[in-house]
Backbone:
């Protein structure tokens, strides 16, 4: 549904034991999918769900995944045992962190911008060329929410990382943003800003993502991306 796989399971009992049991894993072997990740992490506890991010256009793994354990203690054991360890057949060590805790620690500082020049080699050829480089001062020349006071406005929602998406066109709707950003990770909500007088989009919107790493990856993928003849500008909301 909307590029996301639905998982249905019996609800777990609440309590502190199950909080913070979700691991973020980077540098997975490119050929690994959910089955291989599950098998590799299974010795350390009961796994509720595994997920590997895959490019929807090419089917190639993004080498990033998530492992949700039944309890925090199981996740801690896996993180301690596998963090910095090379998986079988790989010469690159895994980066294993707690997904929720890491998202809070890595919240970008005020005014942080992540432009096209930060693309790594793994991303640079995946999308059309972003065109001539803009200088640092003018890269994000228009942000109507840039003067908002911290903590005010409908887009400063707790528990998420808000992306400002500009130049999406007057015909854009929320479905477009969902389809565009859902492959990069968990999208909590999208907002397309409408011109009520004209009945069309003002050309920008906001996307709230749960995890910081996925939000950062979305910026790397889509800042400078050409969509219907328009070059998108994507950054963390100031």
Residues:
């Amino acid at each position: 549904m909307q590029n996301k796989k639905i998982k249905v399971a019996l609800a777990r009992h609440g309590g502190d034991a199950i909080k913070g049991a979700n691991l973020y894993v980077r540098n997975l072997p490119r050929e690994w999918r959910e089955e291989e990740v599950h098998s590799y992490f299974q010795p350390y506890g009961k796994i509720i769900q595994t997920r590997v991010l895959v490019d929807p256009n090419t089917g190639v793994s993004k080498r990033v995944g998530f492992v949700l354990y039944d309890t925090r203690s199981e996740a801690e054991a896996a993180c301690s045992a596998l963090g910095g360890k090379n998986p079988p057949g790989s010469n690159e060590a895994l980066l294993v962190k707690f997904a929720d805790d890491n998202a809070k620690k890595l919240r970008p500082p005020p005014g942080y911008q992540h432009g096209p020049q930060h693309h790594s080699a793994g991303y640079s050829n995946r999308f059309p060329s972003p065109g001539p480089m803009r200088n640092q001062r003018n890269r994000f020349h228009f942000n109507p929410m840039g003067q908002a006071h911290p903590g005010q406005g409908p887009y400063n929602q707790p528990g998420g990382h808000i992306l400002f998406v500009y130049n999406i066109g007057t015909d854009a709707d929320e479905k477009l943003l969902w389809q565009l950003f859902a492959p990069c990770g968990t999208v909590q909500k999208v907002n397309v800003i409408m011109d009520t007088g004209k009945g069309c989009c003002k050309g920008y919107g906001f996307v709230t993502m749960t995890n910081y790493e996925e939000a950062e990856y979305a910026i790397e993928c889509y800042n400078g991306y050409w969509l219907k003849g328009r070059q998108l500008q994507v950054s963390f909301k100031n």
